[in-house]
Every structure is written in structure tokens, then in C-alpha cells.
Amino acid sequence: MMAKNKEPRPPSYAVSVVGLSGTEKDKGNCGVGKSCLCNRFVRSKADEYYPEHTSVLSTIDFGGRVVNNDHFLYWGDVTQSGEDGIECRIHVIEQTEFIDDQTFLPHRSTNLQPYIKRAAASKLQSAEKLMYICTDQLGLEQDFEQKQMPEGKLNIDGFLLCIDVSQGCNRKFDDQLKFVNNLYIQLSKSKKPIIIAATKCDECVDHYLREVQAFASNKKNLVVVETSARFNVNVETCFTALVQMMDKTRGKPKIIPYLDAYKTQRQLVVTATDKFEKLVQTVRDYHATWKTVSNKLKNHPDYEEYINLEGTKKAKNTFSKHIEQLKQEHIRKRKEEYINALPRALNTLLSNLDEVEHLSWSEALKLMEKRPDFQSCFVVLEKTPWDETDHIDKVNDRRIPFDLLTTLEAEKVYQNHVQHLISEKRRVEMKEKFKKTLEKIQFISPGQPWEEVICFVVEDEAFKYITDADSKEVYGRHQREIVEKAKEEFQEMLFEHSELFYDLDLNATPSSDKMSEIHAVLSEEPRYKALQKLAPDRESLLLKHIGFVYHPTKETCLSGQNCTDIKVEQLLANSLLQLDHGRSNLYHDSANIDKVNLFILGKDGLAQELANEIRTQSTDDEYALDGKIYELDLRPVDAKSPYLLTQLWTSAFKPHGCFCVFNSIESLNFIGECIAKIRTEASQIRRDKYMANLPFTLILANQRDSVSKNLPILRHQGQQLANKLQCPFVDVPAGTYPRKFNETQIKQALRGVLEAVKHNFDVVSPVPTIKDLSEADLRIVMCAMCGDPFSVDLILSPFLDSHSCSAAQAGQNNSLMLDKIIGEKRRRIQITILSYHSSIGVRKDELVHGYILVYSAKRKASMGMLRAFLSEVQDTIPVQLVAVTDSQADFFENEAIKELMTEGEHIATEITAKFTALYSLSQYHRQTEVFTLFFSDVLEKKNMIESSYMTDSTRETTHTSEDVFPRSPRGSSLDYNYPDSEDDTEGPPPYSPIGDDVRLLPAPSDRSKYRLDLEGNEYPIHSTPLNCHDHERNHKVPPPIKPKPLVPRTNVKKLDPNLLKTIEAGIGKNLRKQPSRVPVAPSEDIDQSDNYAEPIDTIFKHKGFADDIYAVPDDSQNRIIKIRNSIVINTQGEEENGFSDRISKSHGERRPSKYKYKSKTLFSKAKSYYRRTHSDASDDEAFTTSKTKRKGRHRGSEEDPLLSPVETWKGGIDNPAITSDQELDDKKMKKKTHKAKEDKKPKKKTKTFNPPIRRNWESNYFGMPLQDLVTSEKPIPLFVEKCVQFIEDTGLCTEGLYRVSGNKTDQDNIQKQFDQDHHISLESMGVTVNAVAGALKAFFADLPDPLIPYSLHQDLLETSKITDKTERLHELKEIVKKFHPVNYDVFKYIITHLNRVSQQYKTNFMTADNLSICFWPTLMRPDFENREFLSTTKIHQSVIETFIQQCQFFFYNGEIVEAPNAAACHPPPSNAVQMVEPMVPLQLPPPLQPQLIQSQLPADPLGII
User: Fold this and answer.
1) Which has the closest alpha carbon to 185: 157, 215, 208, 213?
2) Could you give the CA distance from residue 310 to residue 47 in angstroms, rounded to a whole number?
3) What share of the chain is helix, strand, coil (3-state, %, to 5)?
4) What's the rounded Cα separation, in Å, for the pair 1098 and 1286?
5) Residue 847: how many CA atoms within 13 Å on its side-chain side?
6) What is the pLDDT of residues 657-680, one digit of tens each?
């Protein structure tokens, strides 16, 4: 059963390969190819094929198991499948004859028959005979595969007769054929199949092959197969044909001629070779090894096929060739890189044409080796050539191998380099020549296109020589130069016309009329016309300048790092630090000084006499003074001594002071010269800078009777010199003394030295104090213009070089302190050095005793800025004008300098100011004494200045209602007292929704900074500016005064109802009538203090005012003017008849004016601008008119009758004041008055609210309907997208984002630039994040309809009253779905953005609540003329807050977010009284007209009365 189930074994056949064999005599030098044929058939792989098989063996090898003492070899077996799929096993036997390597005769075997008979044997037997592989196997059988002949015996089934058809080796083909014939006869006798294999057909001799074929044709069924073992051609075919003859069931194979079979085989090899080479080419690193690559490729079919056909050796050779090619390619590339880098190296080392123009290459190589940069460009290798060293692998080393320079390619590069230098020199010369040609063409203007100029230069020699690219490059450079120069000159022109800009109100944008006026004035200037082709750039420069005028800071200064404020801070930080350090070393521990070093200077022995007198009064050099003993070290020196300076200050002797004694005019003058020499020497050489700070004391020696008549003269001259030197003067005491020096004089002089030493120590190390700036006796502001052509050191040198200069208090980086003797006392003077743009705020807000106005006599713009600044200064404040130039000779040699210096002196004469000049080349004019007379003048007028200052400050507190109902076409806007922002360029907060001078109560957290006045209004307690625009004031704040006793109030959160009543009462009156008075009951919360004046009846009482008015207290008693129980409403603006003027006149005081009305020069400059656009009046007429009071009209800007006043109406969100026409304003006022009377009638229909247009230019984008700005592909307006992207990329964490207003000029500029180019990049404009945020809000404010339609406002209001949070949110979501699709997309986009902003609230402090306060008026466009709307403002704000908080829920199907404060999610009560509190934050952008405030308020909700 088991035998039946076994699969039948494949048939097995034994084939015997026979042919010519024997000794060399019989077969020649080589065999007929039997072994190669067997080898190729049994082991067809190329690596297993051995072309050499020897038959000459040793006796040992012959007796080994492989040969086994037989003359035949067992090659093993091959399993083969036929075409019909039937397998068979073929055992291969080779019949040969082995020759003894000693006797060269056949080895003796068990079969002694000759080869012919042995080869024809059909049965073979050899026990344990091993398979033969190759000759190397013999004797080393254990190292090769060991396979025995099956059962030690085989029966031969067929014969393969081999006939060598090649030329042979010492063998005749006829002899071989004769041998084959005999062998065939023997084989035939076995009756076994026979096939002739024609071997070595790759070396075939044609007639040999034909003879073989003829031989076979004579035999029956004898087939000839043409083979080649070397190329593996028809080897398998001959064995397959023999098997077919043995097994007739198999298909007869087709015998292919050698040439056809060879072509087929070679095609296989070529295909495999191509595939293998492609495989090898994947290797790109020439460092790869065959071992590594072959291990990676061994399983790849293309690799295996090639190895089988061609062998590993050929594969390795192919790989080696590829690697060598890679290496050579790498070397070629490196060489190419080196050759390409050689010109750069030559440009570095041999860039001078004069050096190399006539040098040979070898000489140039020697020159390069001497260059210091040689090692950075070239490397000298120890081994050469470079391509056979490891340098080729140093890819990062870009240095060129020096031996490469010996090649012809390198020499050719050098020659090209020299030629390039020659041509480049010529090209540069031609470009410069062409540049000069362009400079000579006068009509080339900034911004002129190249195409308009080319026709004028086509015939120019230089233009013809250079290329088009060079000519365009030269012209572009020329254009950049003239454009830059034109812009600088344009900017300079703007500064020269400073009066044109500084008459504007700060923190606002100019109106269209003002811009037209500016353009009208500037258009006459050639520097304005020069930028005609660059109008956008010109406009941008103008807007930037205006923006700087409105928001002047160090950061936005147009001079950049040359800003005077920056320069001053740097200089003072360095100079005062060194000054204090030197003093601290000099006067260390001077407070408890026990030893005093005194230097005594005199002439003709006076110094020695004084020293002797002091020693006479001392005991062992110890001097008793004021109960304390001092050790004195005296050094008397004659003033004529040539060693004066060397004796004055040595390492062993450092004087604390110097006594200068004199007894005649001659000695006094000589001492003065010595002191000046000492100070100058110390200052210039800097050997010890603080030697100049040495305290000097002038001592007058007693005179004899004969010369005592000169004593008054000496006393007077000595006092003058002491004042000049800022040192004490010790006079001769009254009475008659026999000696020259009196004990009283010595003690007085010694006390002066000790006091000076102690003072210097106190300056360096002041005792910690809480005193404020009141420590300074005088406050002087020095102003200089940024960019003036002189150093800050020059204008500060009169102070810094003074021995009495010290640092100001901490935090005052631009101030210094001077201690000077003015009059009879030492005064402390605070000098604050500022730029003109920084001084404007000081001029308006702070107490200043005097101004030192510096200008450059070389720069018209400097004088223009001075005029603009000086025009607005109060004429009570002394002014010192300082002109700066190089030397006095400039006045006579330069007409422009002469003109500016003359103008400055003329202005000083007109306003009775001081005028002086500083010369950079003169040391004398840098002394502090230059300003001594000015300081004295300031000191004399100090009381009057402070009195005027306090009067102005009091006027600010008393005239609280002057601007509540402005009758003038020009209104005023309110500035609030906000803390300084980090970004000084930002504008003020949004305008008040109530009115100009009506302040809302601050937040409870800020209450500590304010106190209530008599009417319940709050004002700051400290002396910071109120910043309320009153055009008749100088914007000053009084110094700290003792406040009235104040009873603290709690829960003061609501508007003063009396204020509202006052406003309503003002609305109800006829606007043309006299001002009405509104009596208010006195406050019971405020106690009367002795510091305030009592009511009196002697003050002039104006009709219409209440009788209970406080008197104006005297300034010396530090009291301020207060008005009790009245609110002054001057509707006609008649301030000259106003209450404060009456009070001032009752005291006989002149009301301060401004210098522009005192100087005809200043006034005429301002008038000239006005006349160009408004009138033809002469300067004289205008000057005369300005002195006359004009009744019945409210004046424009700060007493200036020249400027046309402008009215402020309702601005949009963050909008500037909107200008309007005079007649239209009058009509509006009449209309509103008429309408106010009809308000009692019920209104049936509310008119549509139309906000004013914020822009003052035409736009085809802003103000357009939202539907016109979007498409289905881009549902978000491009401007909105750009702004949001900019904010989220650069400023999402900006503190106060959307709350802090941006620069309005920048906002307008952003929109104007976008109007011109929609693809403009906001990043390239250099604007701030707040400016972009403001421009974004302004975009929504300008839309014809609000983003949230009016039709849905009521629905939102009703829905917000739903108490259940979830229900309320779902209802709001349904309302949002009712939005127009365009509005919905934009609303979703902007709310998503605000949600992102609120997520950064920890850094930007903008929560959803804060953002909603800022944004709800923008999105909903409230109609403040509708009284009903005022009661729902907080509700609408909370709705927007909900949209921001629940953004994911409303627009992205997210979950409801729990608000951090649950109370914030519920709608506030709609009670009108409770709604007063939410109105307190100043977040309502559109200024509300006073008459629109609700009148239905409960009486006295705050409990003030």
C-alpha cells in the first residue's frame, strides 16, 4: 500500500562524455574541451565555471577519492525539465586519461584497457568516488562539497562525443578525426545513443566544422551540436538532445546553429549587464566598497542574474570602473569649483590694477603669497598633486590648492582677471562720467522716469559705452540721491514753516480746510514743487510731519537718534556721573572734616603774610572755629610763580579751598586771571577735571591810611569779580585795625570754605528726602531743535563746565541743578534741556520761570521752530535767545547767518528778551556767566510769574462752564487725564459722550486721586494738568497747594444731576441771550477753612451772577480763587467781560498775553500764512487789530484772531473733530433751538440716525456698502482681512488693544494708502498695532449701515431680558441667523477675531467685557439722539460681550462656555436710574450733544446737595 502511494522517481540517465585524450603527443598542449563542457552543464553559474582543468596529476592526487585511481571523473547530476514538464536526472561522467606528472605516462589503473575501449564501457564502478568540481579540489577534498557517485556504480545510457573544431595546440585535426572515427566504432558497438558536440565553436575553423558535419552525415542518426563552453552556447541543448534519443517520449529539441544561439546568449548577457550597470549607478559615493554594495544587492534579481551569467569578478570590475568614474567626476567638479572661485580670490588679493597690469603669472603667484589674506584663499598641500590627496574629500574647505595654479586653466583665469580689471576700471570711469552728465542736466526732477530722460543722453559718450543695465543703475542711484535730498529739503521746509502747524490743537487731526491751507502755503515753495512727481510720498511726509506735531516723542522724532532729548540724556548721564564720582572722591567724608588744606594765592608777598597771620592765630597749626578744632595745612603761593599749577594740586596735597588775597586793582586783576587760568587749564587738559570746582574766596587786605581812599573802589571791584566767579567776598570789617588781616576776616573765609565743601558733599550724596521740585528756586527750560548743526555739548558746556553743576533728582534724565549766587543769596536753579517738540507739553502744563531758546544761525528751520514755540509763550515769562554758530566772523562773512542772527536779536528787542550767541570755536562764550543777567531777571519776575500762573490755574477751576455751550464755530474737545502709555505715539482716549468741559465721575479705584468741588464735580488733587481745552488759557496747572478739608464720600458713582439740569436749562434758553445763572445750594460736606477767603461784598458783581462769591485771595497766602453756589455760563464767549477778567482788573493785574502779540515779527509771520489763504490785510493792520478786544464773537485758538475757528461736531468712533461751515453751523444751531422748544410734543417716529463722515477725502472703498466690497469667493473685505491679519501676527498681546487709541494721522494714512493700492503691505508702512486697530474700527464706523442691522436691535434687546441663560443664547443664535449673508460672514469673522484677542487677556488686559465696551458702538451704531436708547446702552454692550464669549457656540456649533462671572451673563436692569453707573466709563465714542441727555432723572441721586 505504501509503495503504491509513493510518487514515481524521475528517470535517471548517465551520460558519458568522451573525446580525444592521452599524452601531449596524442592530444597536443590542450584538451578538446570535455571538462569545460561538463563543468558548464553541471554548474552553469559563471562563478562555478573553471576554464582550466588539467589531466597531469601526481600519484597522490590520482589515488585520492575524487579520481580514485580511475581514468574517468564523476561530475555530479543535473535535474532537468523538458518542454512537456517531465523531469529527469542526468549523471555526467567524463572519460579521460590522467598522466603521471613524473613519467608523463598514463597512470596505471585497475582497468588496463586503452582509452578507446575504456571510453566505450557501458558499466562503470568505483567505490566511494567523489564528485569532481575543479583541479584545486584535489588534495583538499574536505574544503569542497563532497558528494559520492550513487552506489559507487553507473550504467551509461548515452555518449557525448566531443570534437574540437578550433585551431588546436600542436594537434592535427585529421589525427583527431581519425581518433574520433575509431572511438565512434567502439561506441557504436554498445548500441547506446551518440551525439557529436563540436566544442570551442567560439574559436571555430570553418572547414573543420564542415568536416565534422560531413563525418556525421555519413553516420546514421548522428547529430552534431555546435557548442561553446566559454560563452555557454548550446551546452544544455546537446545534453537535452541526447536525453531525447534515450527517451523517445520526450519532444525532440530544436538544434540551433552556433551563430544564432550565440546571438541569443549574448543578448541575454547584454540585457543583464545593462540592468546591473544601472543598479551599480545608484551608488553615488566613490568611497563605497564592493563588499558593502554587494551585501546590499545580493538579493536583487538583476544582480543575481548578472552574477550567474558573467560572474562576480566581472561584476566587481564593473563596480570598480563606476567608482573610478565617480571619483574622477568629483575631482573634475572640485577643479571646476576651484577655477570658478579663482577670480574671487584674485579680486581679493590682486584687486589693484596698477600692481598686476604688467606682471606675469609666475610673478603674480609670488605676490599673492605675500598677501595677508593668502591663507584664507589658498592652501599649500604637503603632497601633490592635489587630486591624489585627501584634500579632495574636504568639501567644506573652499580654499584652492596652490599647486592647481600651475595649470594652464589657472593662468588663463589670471589673464582674464587682468583684462576684467582694465575693462572694469574703464566701466567705472564711464559710469561716473555718466553720473556727472546726469548731474548737469537741470530738468531731471525727483521721480522722473528713465524713459523721459534717455532721449537727452543718447549721444553721450559714456552712455554709449556702458550697458543699459549700468545706465539704469546709475540713473537709479542719481534718482535716489535727488529724491533723498528733495525729501530732506522738503522736511526742512516744513520745519521752516513751523508756525503753519503748531497753531493746531494737539491730539486732533487737521480739517480738510486746514490741509487745503497748508497745501496752499507750501505750494508756493520750490521744494514743494520738487516732489510734484512723487505726490504720494510728499503727502506721506506731510502726514508724518503732522502726526509728529500732534504726538511728539523721542521715539517718533524725525531726527531719529539725533533727537535732542536722546542726546541730552546720554550726555547728562555720562557727564554728571563722572562729575559726581569725582566730587565723591574729592569730598568723601567731608561732613566731619578735621583737617583743612588751604591754598593761599596772592601777589607781592600777600599770600605769605596771610599765612603768617593765620598761624599767629593758631596753636600748633590748630585753629579754633565755632567750638571745633581744625588742623590747617597752608600752602601760600605767589601769583607770579611759574609753578603755580603744579603746586596747586599734588598727590600729597589736595586743597579744600583757595584764599585769594588782594590789596590793589593790579593784584585783583592778576588774581582774576590766575583763577580763570586754573579753571581753563583744569577743564581743557582734564588732568583733574574737578580742580575747576575748587572753592575760591576773595579777601580784601586792609589798607594803610595813605591809600585808604582806594578802599571803596577795591571793595566794589572785588564784589563784581566775586559775583562773576560765583565765590564769596570777604570785606574789610568796619573800624581801624593795625594789621592787614583781621581775625573776623579769617574766620569768615574759613567758614565759607567749610560751607562750600559741605555743599559739594551734599550735592554728591543728598540726604534722602521726599521733597519735590519745590527745592529749586528757579525752573528754567532750555529748548533746542533736533538736528541742528551743533553738538549738545556746546549748549550745555556753560553749565557742565561750572563748578556749581550737579545732577537733578532721580528720574529727571534731562535736567541738571545749578547753584549760583544771584544777588546776595545762593540760589538753586533747575535747568531742563528739551527739544522744542518736548517743550510744548511743558509750556502748556507746567510752571516755568524762564526759557532759554537756542537756535542755529546756520539753519532757517531752527529759527522757524523758535518763532512757532515763542509765539505761544506767556509774555510774563522771561526769555533768553541764544544763537549758535562757529565764530564771530560768520556774522560778517555769511549773509544767511547774519540775517538769522539779526532776526533773533530783533525779536529779542521786540519782546524785551535777552539775546546772546555761543561760538563753538570760543571758550569764553561757554561760561556760565553768559546767563547770569538772565537768571537775575527771572528771579526779579519770579513772584509775578507764579502769580500769573496761579491766576491762570484758578481761571481753569472757576470757568467750568464757559465751553459747555460753545457759541463759536470753533468748539473744543476734552482731553482726559490718562496715565502715560508705553506707546507715546498713541492718541487720546475717545471723546466724551456728554460735552467738552463736562467730566464724568472716575472709577471707584481712581477716586483717591480726585476731590469734589462745590458742585460735586471731581478734579485732580495733585498738580498734574487738567488738560481741558480752554482757548483762553495757557494750559497750566498751579503748584501744590493746601487742599480744603474733605469729607470722604462713599458710593459716588452717578452723574451730578445738577450738571444735567444745568445742561437742560442751557438748552432751553435762547442761544443769543445773556448767560443765565443756575444757583446751587452750598454743599454741607465741605467745611470752610482759614486757608480760603471769606465771602465779601466789595468785589465787582456782574449782572447775572450770584451774590455769594468768594473773594480772590492774595497769592502770598497760597489761596486759590473759588466760586461758590454758581456756575458761570458765558454763551457768547465774552471773556473780556467775564468774571475772571473782572476779578483780575479789580486787583489791578494785567492779564498775560502771548509773545506773538508783543512781537511784530512773530505776529507778521503768523499773519502771512493767514493772509495767503484768507485776507489781504497788511501786517500792520493785523497787528494793530490784535491789540483791540473784539466783542460779540468767541475767538478761535487761544486769543489768536488770525486763525479761522472751526467747530467740533459729533465724531465717529475714535474720530477726530469734524469741521463744518460757519453759516451751516449757525443754521444748525437755530434749527436745534427751534427744535428744543418743540420737544414737549410727543414724537411719533424716530428719524434715521446718520453718522457724520469721518474722512476728509473722497474714497471709492471706505464708506461704501458692505455688499460692494465682497464677493462670493472672498466674503470678507480685503481691508478688514489685512488689518486683522496684521493685528494677530504682530500685536495680539498689545496692552489695551482696541482701547488705547492709535495715532489718528496714521489711521488716515493707512486708509489713504489702501485707497491708492489695495495690495499695500501694512508691515512696510511701519505703523503701530493701535493705529491699525483704530483704522479697522473706523472702517465699520464709515459703513452706511451698521454691521448689526437696526431692524434687529429690538429683537436683541428683548432676547437679552430672558433670564434662562441657555434659552437666551439659543434665541440670540436664531437672531444672528437673520443677518444678511454678507453681514453674517463679516460679523462672524470679526467676533472670532475679538474672541482670539480676549483669550490673551492676561497680557493685553482686554477681556470680553472690555472689548465689548470698545466695540459695541462700532457694530451697532447707536443713535444717541434717541433718548430711549440711553437706557439700554449696557444691555447692548452685554449682548456683544456674550457674542465674544460664546463665539464657538454661535458660529461653530460648539458648547456653551461658562463665563468667569456669572453676573456678566445676565442682562442688567433697564431702570434709568441704575443705568447711570454704566455710563461712567468714558467708552462712548460719539460726542453727545448736551441737549440730548435724559431729563427724567430723579432729583439728587448722588446726595450731593
Assistant:
1) 215
2) 8
3) 50, 10, 40
4) 66
5) 26
6) 899 999 888 888 888 888 877 777
- Please state, in angstroms and rounded to a whole number, the distance separating the CA atoms of residues 658 and 1187: 56
The CA–CA distances, whole Å, from 1485 to 977, 1208, 1418 equal: 17, 14, 9
* Spatial distance between the Cα atoms of 1369 and 1466, rounded to a whole number of angstroms: 11
Q: Please, is 373 exposed, middle or buried when counting C-beta atoms within 10 Å of its C-beta (0-12, 13-18, 19+)?
A: exposed
Cβ pair 677, 691 in contact under 8 A: no
The answer to whether 799 touches 748, Cβ cutoff 8 Å, is no
Model confidence pLDDT, tens digit, residues 955-1001: 555 544 333 333 333 333 333 333 333 333 333 333 333 333 333 33
Write out pLDDT tens, residues 394-445: 888 889 999 888 899 999 999 999 999 999 899 999 999 999 999 888 888 8
CB 1393 within 8 A of CB 1476: no
Task: Please report, for residues 873, 1345, 1401, the alpha-carbon distance to residue 1447 in angstroms, rounded to integers and kept in the order given.
Answer: 54, 23, 16
In Å, what is the CA distance from 1172 to each residue of 298, 346, 517, 1175, 1203?
Answer: 97, 65, 8, 7, 12
Q: What is the DSSP secondary-structure string of 118-165?
A: HHT-SEEE-TTPBPP--GGGTT-GGGS---BPGGGEEE--EEEEEEE-
d(C-alpha 246, C-alpha 264), whole Å: 27
Q: Which helix (H) or strand (E) holds 1356?
A: helix 1353-1359
Give the SS3 label for residue 1479. helix
Residue in 499, 546, 525 with CA at minimum distance from that of residue 1165: 499
Q: Distance between CA 382 and CA 795 in Å, rounded?
A: 66
Burial of 1354 (0-12, 13-18, 19+ CB in 10 A): exposed
Closest CA to 810 of 851, 757, 773: 773
Owner of C-alpha cell 455688499:
1267
CA angle, 860 then 1031 then 962, to 5°: 180
The string of DSSP letters for 226-261 reads: E-BTTTTBSHHHHHHHHHHHH-TTSPPPPPPPHHHH
Give the per-residue pLDDT at 7: 63
Please write down the HEC assignment for all residues of 1037-1098: CCCCCCCCCCCCCCCCCCCCHHHHHHHHHHHHCCCCCCCCCCCCCCCCCCCCCCCCCCECCC
CB of 49 within 8 A of CB of 39? yes
The phi and psi torsions of 1128 (rounded to 5 degrees) equal: -85, 120
Strands 729-730 and 778-784: unpaired
- Cβ neighbours for 203, distance < 8 A, ≥ 6 positions apart: 166, 167
Distance (Å, rounded) from C-alpha 44 to C-alpha 233?
A: 11
> Judging by beta carbons within 10 Å of its beta carbon (0-12, 13-18, 19+), is residue 767 exposed, middle or buried?
exposed
Q: Give pLDDT, residue 1186.
A: 41
> Which residue(s) pair with 16 in the sheet?
93, 159
Q: How far is CA 1159 from CA 65, 503, 1034, in A?
A: 137, 17, 18
Q: Grid cell 461658562 — which residue?
A: 1458
